Amino acid sequence: MSGELTLRAGERLDDLMRSGRVIIQNEREFCFSMDSVLIAHFPRFKKNARVIDLGTGTGVIPLLIADEVKEICAVELNPQAADLARRNVELNGLAEKISVVEGDYRKHRELFKAESFDLAIANPPYMPVPNGAVNQIAGIARARHEFTATLEDVVTAARYVLKFRGVFCMIHLAARLCEIVDALHRHQMEMKRLRPIQPKAGREVNLIMLEAVVGANAGNLKILPPLIVHNEDGSYTDEIYKIYNE
């Protein structure tokens, strides 16, 4: 740590187990989940890459990947989360590498120059908002629904900011794979790697991690072995422990 640590009401400090980095989180708000950690370890990074994190929350993905790339832009709509992301960047001495942009990536044309990034990463809201259920969804459940950005929104933003042959990596619901493939295709991106995620061996795949490339030809999709999260006794698998302790 190189910045000054001051915790406010409701905040806690968590160890990221990565290059001595820590993250401030607010227990009253939506804290990052395992999904963010998994997608942070999925891309094939290049040292000179300019990366954008679409919907960074408190900045966990940039903190985890900072050693792997040249520059990261972390975009966040929620002012409180964006403030925490800035504080986390400063706390870990990464202000020269990570910039936090408080803004709505649906307004990407106002925020960024077209085709200016090599890699885009996203852990977006997963679930469509059911008709008539807007007022019934609150708290953490609300953060997982597409109130502020839809699947179409995140794919559109990724295509706008990515260079030709740029790479888009995202974690999402397996049940929405057909929608995802369609959205990618309509925005000139084709999926090249796919990794299913299972809560336990023998269970249905519930999540997927994908890599799509701008301007790539269709076909030659590489489907990786499933990532299994838990053993039968509920403990984490060796691969999950390796990811967290890499």
What is the tally of helical segments? 8
Q: Rounded to an integer, what's the Rg over CA atoms?
A: 18 Å
Main sheet characteristics: 9 strands, mixed
Principal-axes geometry comes out as: globular
What is the share of helical residues? 25-40%
What share of residues are in beta strands?
25-35%
Question: How do the helices and strands follow one another from N- to C-terminus?
Answer: EEHEHEHEHEHHEHEEEEH
Mean pLDDT: 92
Instruction: Please state the structural category.
Output: alpha/beta
Compute the separation of the termini in Å: 19 Å
* Low-confidence region ranges: none
Q: What labels describe this entry?
A:
alpha/beta; 246 residues; two-stranded antiparallel ribbon; nine-stranded mixed beta sheet; 26% helix
Textual characterization of the structure:
- This protein is of the alpha/beta class.
- It has helices at residues 34-40, 60-65, 79-91, 108-111, 139-143, 151-161, 177-186, 238-244; strands at residues 11-15, 22-26, 50-54, 71-76, 98-102, 117-122, 162-173, 189-200, 207-214, 222-223, 227-230.
- Strands 3, 4, 5, 6, 7, 8, 9, 10 and 11 form a nine-stranded mixed beta sheet that branches. The protein has a two-stranded antiparallel ribbon with strand order 1-2.
- Helix 2 (60-65) links the parallel strand 3 (50-54) and strand 4 (71-76).
- The relative contact order is 0.13.
Provide a quick synopsis of the model.
By secondary structure, this protein is of the alpha/beta class.
